[in-house]
Amino acid sequence: VVEFLRNTCGLKEEFSEEELFHCVGILRTNAFHLENSIPTSIGRAVFPIFSLLSHSCICNCRYSASGTTQKITVRAQKAIKKGEELTIQYISFMYGHLKRRSDIKKCWFFNCICSRCQSPSEFNSYMSAVKCINCLDGYVIPTNSLEYEGHWCCISCKKEMSSNQVIAIHDKFEDELFNTFENDLKRYEILIPQFLEELHPRHYLVLTAKKYLADLYGTSQGYLLNELSE
Questions:
Q1: HEC string of 2-35?
Q2: Sequence spans of domains, the chain
Q3: Would you place residue 6 in the very low, low, confident or very high pLDDT band (cuts 50, 70, 90)?
Q4: If we measure between CA atoms, which residue out of 127, 133, 170 comes closest to residue 153?
Q5: Which CATH number fits domain 2-88: 2.40.160, 2.60.450, 2.170.270, 1.10.3470?
Q6: Which residues contact 148 (CB under 8 A, 6 or more apart)?
Q7: Is the distance from CB of 134 to CB of 153 less than 8 angstroms?
Q8: Which band of pLDDT confidence, cut at 50, 70 and 90, is reported for residue 174?
Q9: pLDDT at residue 176 greater than cutoff 90
Q10: Which of 30, 48, 184, 214 is the most exposed place for a label (fewest CB within 10 A)?
Q11: SS3 (DSSP) at 213
Q12: Full-model pTM
């Protein structure tokens, strides 16, 4: 990007390479995607005051932006005590430990250590838990959820799995979702039972597949509301 701006756009004499890298860094970490009412993307914008808000995976505020008015609105979504830091979510709350923390590290260059990230079970939601390969009845969660390459341990038999083993399971099912067309209702009906063979029922990939399926029921040909059984 910097080379394109300096050489192709003719900014080489006006801005140094360091200055452009600094601007690109600001845009990458603070810019907000704007859409109009259609919705169609109309670009990215930086809101200076909004950029001061920190991230938390269990934030106390939510925000909405309007591409039409080019304004952003922040509202409290829980009771906030005097002096308490205002926080928002940079990414979807639906992601589990591995994807959520790695995406934050990759895109915003910090390690999230919020209370949810510090909870191996993610406050008993088990949104990242996989089935134990030893006892088959228990579920495996990280022993230290702040370690990217730490061990995972079954809550029932205490058998350990490496993070690489867990990542391989996640990647396998994530690829299945990624390679499924959004309107392929029958494929989602097949995938969900397969996911449940190795993932916790509240694993974020299971919930994501169920959300896609729920969106299709009632709107897809052959599955319209008057055609669905009870």
A1: HHHHHHHCCCCCCCCHHHHHHHHHHHHHHCEEEE
A2: 2-88, 97-216
A3: confident
A4: 133
A5: 2.170.270
A6: 101, 102, 163
A7: no
A8: very high
A9: yes
A10: 48
A11: helix
A12: 0.82
